[in-house]
Write a structure and sequence with these properties.
By secondary structure, the protein is of the alpha+beta class. The chain has two domains: about 5-55 and about 265-400, no CATH class; about 70-250, no CATH class. The chain is built from twelve helices and 13 strands. The strands form two sheets. The chain has a six-stranded mixed barrel. It has a two-stranded antiparallel ribbon with strand order 2-11. The longest helix is centred in the N-terminal third of the chain and has 41 residues, at about 20-60. About 35% of the residues are buried. This is ABC transporter permease. Its main location: membrane.
Length: about 400
């Protein structure tokens, strides 16, 4: 029989007398439990927000993107495109010409982000789930079409039924002095709106157009692009693919993954997650201070019992383990209960989404959550460290009673 565990359980679970110390221990257990539950839930919400953003970006952005290290455009030679397509694990390579432009429709106008793409873009099927109205079409029967974001449609009051009113895109000509009254100061292209998509507000000003149309509008040469977007085969190791692609494109171009393009957002989420974890950790520590007080008072209350144990041959180590075990019972009972409740809440939220965001403009209805094993391990380690910290000094004080006269 483990004597320290048996005595510690007797101290905590005894029903003969519920003293103030017993109630303080229960209060400590509840505080640790609530803090642990809150820590698990909040960290899971941050994980869910990070995963949600990844899913949003995956709807519009490529797995890998090639940019020039200097300037905003570069020459994508047929040889470069061929080498990229022949690279292992590469599925599709899309040439892109992208810049800000002025969009006109009927009597309305707005600034848009025009993204010219080649035919491989629609093969990626990324926007299929984001299409609200119309169809994904860029060119058919020598007619140029555009696919616009919901924000552009609202700003310009675009009607897909009205096929007679074109969407006109204006871009300043290079070498011309800027004068809005000069009709020759702008390149102009007209397109029919084929569809409307919606992802989230970050992409609300985008207009997708044929690559040749965008090049003509921007005054680019036939092989000039602002970027190359690369889709990888499923199951590909992104870090290895990124290194292989960087060797192909050389030193003048850089390859960035989807996470690299949004690194500032992910860094912000992780910093906020860390700050919240530290804050909740301090809350658990404050709740655990009650363990320190309850054990300290228990040592005073059981002083005569401790002397009797020493008289019967107990060692200082045995007495110390009794009170350390008592603190562990209080803290770990609350922590395990809070951990189970936190996991159950996260699973229920993930399955049923009963906690709503309360905003109509959001692309999801409920708070996203994702349980991460590392967060649970971190929570357990944090509670164990706090338990040792708050239980050690009362246990050490009890161990010294037998040495005092």
């Amino acid at each position: 029989m483990n004597l320290p565990n048996w005595i510690a359980r007797r101290y905590f679970f005894s029903k003969k007398k519920r003293s103030f110390i017993s109630w303080l221990s229960i209060l400590s257990m509840l505080g640790v439990g609530v803090g642990t539950m809150a820590l698990v839930v909040v960290l899971s919400v941050f994980n869910g927000m990070e995963e949600l953003n990844r899913q949003i970006f995956k709807t519009f952005e490529a797995d890998m993107t090639v940019f020039p290290k200097q300037g905003k455009r570069f020459l994508a030679s047929p040889e470069l495109l061929t080498r990229l397509r022949q690279t292992s694990d590469v599925s599709l390579v899309t040439a892109v010409a992208q810049d800000n432009a002025l969009a006109l429709y009927d009597n309305a106008q707005t600034v848009v982000r025009l993204k010219g793409v080649d035919d491989s873009y629609l093969q990626r099927q990324q926007l299929d789930s984001a299409l609200l109205e119309g169809k994904l079409l860029l060119r058919r029967n020598n007619v140029n079409y555009a696919v616009v974001a919901e924000g552009v449609r609202n700003d310009l009051s675009i009607s897909l039924i009205d096929i007679l009113t074109p969407l006109e895109i204006l871009y300043p000509q290079s070498g011309q002095s800027f004068n809005i009254l000069n009709p020759d100061a702008f390149n102009r292209e007209r397109m029919t709106v084929a569809g409307v998509f919606f992802i989230e507000s970050k992409y609300d000003n985008f207009v997708l157009a044929p690559l040749a149309t965008a090049r003509t509008l921007f005054g680019y040469a036939p092989n000039e692009v602002t970027s190359l977007e690369i889709q990888l085969r499923p199951g590909t190791n992104e870090n290895q693919a990124k290194a292989a692609l960087q060797q192909v494109v050389g030193d003048k171009l850089t390859v960035q993954s989807r996470d690299d393009l949004n690194t500032d957002l992910y860094r912000t989420i992780r910093i906020e997650k860390l700050l919240v974890a530290v804050t909740l950790g301090f809350i658990i520590l404050v709740a655990s201070i009650n363990i320190f007080f309850s054990l300290s008072m228990l040592v005073v209350e059981k002083k005569e019992d401790i002397k009797i144990m020493f008289a019967l041959g107990a060692t200082s180590g045995l007495v110390r383990r009794i009170y350390l075990t008592e603190g562990a019972i209080i803290a770990l009972t609350g922590a395990v209960t809070g951990l189970i409740l936190g996991v159950l809440i996260c699973l229920a939220q993930e399955q049923y989404g009963f906690i709503r965001l309360g905003t109509e403009s959001s692309i999801i209805d409920a708070y996203p959550v994702r349980l991460d094993t590392s967060d649970i391990v971190l929570t357990v380690v944090l509670v164990v460290l706090i338990t040792i910290l708050t239980s050690w000094f009362p246990a050490q004080r009890a161990a010294k009673i037998g040495t005092t006269r």
